[in-house]
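Journal club prep — side note

Before the paper discussion, L.F. wants everyone to see what a predicted structure for a comparable chain looks like in token form. Sequence:
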Amino acid sequence: MKNKSKSHNHPLSRLLLLLVFTLLFIISCKKNEETILKKDTIQEAQEWFRSKTINQNLNTSMFRSKGINKLSTLSPQSFASIPANADHTLNIEWKNAKQYQSNDSTIIEVPVNTKGIFKFNTEPANDKKISINKSFTRVLFIETALKTEGYFMTIISSDTYLAKNGSNPYNNSHLRKESDFEGTIVYHDLSGKMLNAFSISKLKLANKQASINPTPKDKISIAIPDNCVGTPVYEVIGTDCYDIGAYYTYCENVYSIYLGSTGCGSGGGITNPNAPGGGGAGDSGTTSMTMPPPPAIPITDIKKFLSCFDKSKSASLTVYAEKIATSFPGHAFISIKQGSNTMVLGFYPKESFPSTVSGPGVMGENGEHAYNAATNYGDISSEKLQKIIDTAIKFSSSNYILTNNNCANFALEVLRILGVTDITGICTPDNIYDLIKPYATSTNGKAPKTQRTCD
């Protein structure tokens, strides 16, 4: 016993103990630092959200027309006022905020709840018993070094998906969905205006359009078959509600308000009754979005592809847009010409994504790609050429995200370098068309071939 006691006082033992305590202290400090960083980021999002909604009444009425509200029916024709006690204040649950990274973007999702029933559905409620898990809404923040964007995102699960063993709708997020997820995703801006809605389902019908090219391993794809019918979107609220067990809420009075419908077929936009004229993409600024296929000719080494350009000299730049209705799901891309070198390129998903709306991105060679509008911006400076090349390199190593990092976002970043007016909200090829069409130097043609004079 005496010898053991002395061994604890040995210099080597004391040194080992000191090292252990030092490592524990460093790890503890690192964890605290990460916690502080996460809290600071969420705190910044909270302050940004408050600054954007300071003059708004954040309640369930903000998602529908402020005037007469449509009753629940698949083809709304009758009208009625919604009683004031059916609407409830939105509770943004900042303490339950989740944060994750996607390349150069920080994504934050914050649950939204109310004291009463507040759901979205793809059909009007035909019962006073409402499924608690049918849908959930979150405030979605997408932050990059350039800007912060905010939306209300709602994930509506299909009954088929909810009935499956082990399905958990709350595992689904902006970027990731469970492999067997089926349902509809709806995005509203922070004022409550519906921006976009699209459905994800098992590919049961043959899709004859070129917009989807699933591989044999794919279980799910976002597809629009020839006989597609747009999916309606309803807000469901009620009065005198109470929970029945863990899965249902019963309300004495239930109201289903038609908000719009996902687009279909030729790629028409959301039919939004709150927009002037209630039209599609042209009137409401909203569009049905579908994950495009990978490029026919992927650019595996973007730096080498663009290496023929002398970045100390000027170059000619053209931006192209192919409308969604022309060739679903549309495309936006650019060409750069300097001397005998012409490179035509756009941004794509690297592969088909069966269960998500995001994944690795890649630049694609777009020589002779069709377009509806092309605007040549003349000779750009060497500084702007360098920035555009850097932008192409940055996008090639980023995730393709259907809602905020797609081919149109690449074209928009190039237009920003040129000083062209920005776009707010979700960007689509139709938005790029609207931006460049007034100054178009050519319409309804094909882009030039890519020509490189270096190895």
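L.F.'s comment for the group: The chain has two domains: 40-284, 298-446. Keep this in mind when we get to the figures.
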